[in-house]
Design brief:
single chain; 159 residues
């Protein structure tokens, strides 16, 4: 049984481990950990992490924050052994509902252009390309990359 809950500061180390494990697939274009304890602590000051658990295991997490009428989410991370099982969709669906309940009209995200499987996934989930952005990570990349920005207009959720 998968349960969802909002992370607390005591979850920081587990979030870092999960995110860094899930993002190992990016080593073909960049060699570095995806996040750190310091980064997650800073993110918890401006937004939240939603966790998916199958007690006592952390299966997935996603960072999200409110930005006026827009919600933003990122760092969707699923334990590699549980990918393609619906955990990611469950987390994103819960975040979209949170945004809707908070009065947001849109849900936004950005992905690295070379992660083509993510682009296809988010398009299947109703996200449309809205532009590109400079890849602003200070770690040098092995190949040229940029961000693709995507957005989804939110509509009503069942009660």
């Amino acid at each position: 049984m998968i349960s969802l809950r909002t992370a607390t500061p005591s979850d920081t180390a587990a979030i870092v481990r999960l995110v860094n494990t899930a993002f190992l697939v990016e080593q073909f274009f960049i060699e570095r950990d995806r996040t750190s304890l310091e980064t997650v602590r800073e993110l918890l000051k401006t937004g939240k992490f939603l966790l998916a658990e199958d007690t006592p295991h952390l299966l997935g997490c996603v960072y999200f924050e409110l930005r006026g009428e827009r919600g933003y989410f990122g760092m969707l991370s699923i334990d590699p052994s549980r990918q393609r099982t619906g955990v990611g969709r469950q987390l994103v669906g819960a975040v979209e509902k949170y945004f809707w309940d908070a009065g947001c009209k849109f849900s936004d995200l950005k992905i690295v252009n070379v992660r083509t499987e993510l682009h296809a996934l988010y398009r299947r989930w109703g996200y449309l390309d809205t532009g590109t952005a400079i890849y602003d990570d200070p770690t040098p990349t092995k190949i040229p990359v940029h961000f693709i920005t995507m957005s989804k207009r939110l509509s009503g959720f069942p009660a």
